[in-house]
Amino acid sequence: MLSGSWFISGSFQICRPRERCPSLDDATQAYRDSLAIAKKLAAGDPSNTQWQRDLYVSYWRLADLAEKQNNSREASTYWKQAFDVLSEIDKRDLHFSPEDRQFLETLRGEIGAGGQ
Predict the structure, then answer these.
(1) Fewer CB within 10 Å, N or C, the chain?
(2) Could you give the CA distance from residue 15 to residue 112 in angstroms, rounded to a whole number?
(3) Domain for residue 36, yes or no?
C-alpha cells in the first residue's frame, strides 16, 4: 500500500511507507539549486541557447511553485525574470522555436507586459 504521492510540475514520485515525502519547500530548494547552476552556465556562454532556455525554465518552475504556495510577489518576480531571459533570446536572434514564442506570449500575459 502506498503511503502518499507527490505531484509537482510534471514530476511524480511515490513515497514508501514511513518515508518522508518531499514537500513544496523541498522542491523549491531543488529548483533554487538548479537555478544557481543555470545562472552560471548561461552567464558563461550567453550565445548558448540551451543554457539560456534552462535559465528561463528554472525561473518558470520557481514561479509556478511560488504560486502553489500563495506567494504572488515572489511568483511575479520569477515570471518577470523568465520573461526577460526569453525576450533576450528573441532579441539576440538566437534560435527561437515556435514553443519559445508560445512561452514568451504566455509569460507576457502572466506578467502583464503587453508590448514591453
Answers:
(1) N
(2) 39
(3) yes
For a pLDDT cut of 90, what percent of the chain falls above it?
47
Is the Cα dihedral 35, 39, 45, 49 positive or negative?
A: positive
User: Residue 7 falls within a domain, yes or no?
Assistant: no
pLDDT tens-digit readout, 96-107: 888 888 988 988
Kindly report the pTM of this predicted structure. 0.74
d(CA 53, CA 69): 24
How many domains are contained in the chain? 1
Is there a domain that residue 61 lies in? yes
The 10 Å CB-count burial string (b at 16+, else e) for 17-49 is eeeeeeeeeebbeebeebbeebbeebeeeeeeb
